[in-house]
Amino acid sequence: MFTEPAPRSTTHLVAARAAGIIAATAALGLALTPATASAANYKNGSFSGTGTYTLPVGTSDLGVQMALANNVVRSASVTYSALPISREFQTRWWNASRGKIVGKNIDQIHVGKTAGSSLTPNGFNGALAQIKSQARR
Fold it and tell me: From which residue to which does the signal peptide run (predicted)?
């Protein structure tokens, strides 16, 4: 004998859908937090900063330009130092780090020593602090 399944309540359907959305979000590596649900903390637009950092033989600069939209870095570029040795390390660092920056929430960018360059991140982080200051609402 065939019996009809018991009807599901609306509450059960909503809970099942919510669980599915949460699982899909987690699988994509996204977080559902008040920070991601809140209004943008930064203005949309293009911003720039220059970070200066100490070398064993003096100082070097790294210019950083970023375009932000809804707190996310949509594009970024750098202006390398005129010092040949700095430019070499900065180029290697940027080529290895760009993917950790573009497409990320500006508050979640954490880059350090990469591609053998341990000092360049100091310049980048200084420039990033300037950009955040300019863009903050």
Answer: 1-39
Is the pLDDT score of 42 beyond 70? yes
Alpha carbon distance 25, 83 (integer Å): 45
**Structure-token pair, residue 43:** 């203005």
Structural domain that includes position 91: 45-135
- pTM > 0.85: no
Query: Of 80, 118, 73, nearest to 98 (Cα)?
Result: 73
Distance CA 66, CA 28 (A): 25
Angle at 42 between CA 129 and CA 108, to 5 degrees: 60
Tally the domains of the chain. Answer: 1
